[in-house]
C-alpha cells in the first residue's frame, strides 16, 4: 500500500500528473526511510503534540482539506485566482521533509520537502508554497498559494498548543 492508497485528499487535485507526482514524492521518501505509508499514522507531526492526538498523516490530511476549502472560498467569495491543485499539492507535501529531519536534524524540513518536490518536477507555485510555509518565512511569500498554505498549516498547529489540548 502506497501513499495514494491511504490519502483520499489526493483526489482534491484535479490534474492527474500533479496528483501522481505528489504520491511519487511520498512513496520515494517512505522507501528511502524504510517506512510504510501506514506508519505515517504512528509518527508525530511535531514534538509539542502527542502522536496519539495528531499523527503526521492526520495533520497532512487536515491541512490539505483546509487548503482546498480556502482555495474555494477565496475564488468564490473574493474572486481571487487560486491554483487549487498547486495549493493542495503543497499541503500534502509541506512536511514530507520531516522524515529527513527526524533522521538528520540539520536537514530543515521545509528545504528538504522542496528538494523532494523539485526532484519530481512539481510546479514552481508548489515549491514556493512549501518553501515558505513556516511562520518565520512570512516576508518571503510571493503568491497566494503560499499564504493560504501557511494559514491552513498554522490552523492545525497553533490552536493545539494554545488550548492545552496538546
The CATH architecture term is Orthogonal Bundle
Element string (H = helix, E = strand): HHHHHHHHH
* CATH level 1 name: Mainly Alpha
* Gyration radius, in Å: 15 Å
Helicity range: 55-70%
Characterize this entry briefly.
With 166 residues, the protein is mostly helical. It is built from 9 helices and no strands.
Explain the overall architecture.
The protein is an all-alpha fold. It has one domain (3-162): Hypothetical protein af1432 (Orthogonal Bundle). The protein is 58% helix and 0% strand. The protein contains nine helices and no strands. The protein has helices at residues 3-6, 16-32, 56-78, 84-93, 98-103, 109-119, 124-131, 144-155, 158-162. The model has no long low-confidence stretch (mean pLDDT 94).
Which structural traits does this protein have?
0% strand, Hypothetical protein af1432, mainly alpha, 166 residues, 9 helices, 58% helix
Give the SSE map.
Elements: H1 3-6, H2 16-32, H3 56-78, H4 84-93, H5 98-103, H6 109-119, H7 124-131, H8 144-155, H9 158-162
Helix pairs in contact: 2-4, 3-4, 3-8, 4-7, 4-8, 6-7, 7-8
Amino acid at each position: 500500500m502506497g501513499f495514494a492508497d491511504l490519502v483520499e485528499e489526493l483526489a482534491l487535485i484535479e490534474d492527474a500528473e500533479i496528483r501522481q507526482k505528489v504520491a511519487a514524492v511520498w512513496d520515494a521518501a517512505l522507501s528511502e526511510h524504510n517506512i510504510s505509508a501506514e506508519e505515517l499514522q504512528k509518527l508525530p507531526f511535531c514534538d509539542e503534540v502527542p502522536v496519539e492526538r495528531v499523527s503526521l498523516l492526520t495533520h497532512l490530511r487536515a491541512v490539505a482539506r483546509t487548503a482546498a476549502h480556502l482555495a474555494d472560498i477565496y475564488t468564490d467569495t473574493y474572486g481571487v485566482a487560486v491554483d487549487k491543485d498547486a495549493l493542495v499539492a503543497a499541503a500534502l507535501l509541506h512536511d514530507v521533509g520531516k522524515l529527513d529531519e527526524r533522521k538528520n536534524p540539520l536537514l530543515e524540513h521545509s528545504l528538504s520537502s522542496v528538494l523532494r518536490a523539485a526532484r519530481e518536477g512539481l510546479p514552481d507555485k508548489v515549491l514556493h508554497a512549501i518553501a515558505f510555509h513556516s511562520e518565520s518565512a512570512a516576508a518571503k511569500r510571493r503568491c497566494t498559494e503560499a499564504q493560504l498554505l501557511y494559514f491552513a498549516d498554522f490552523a492545525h498547529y497553533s490552536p493545539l498548543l494554545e488550548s492545552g489540548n496538546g
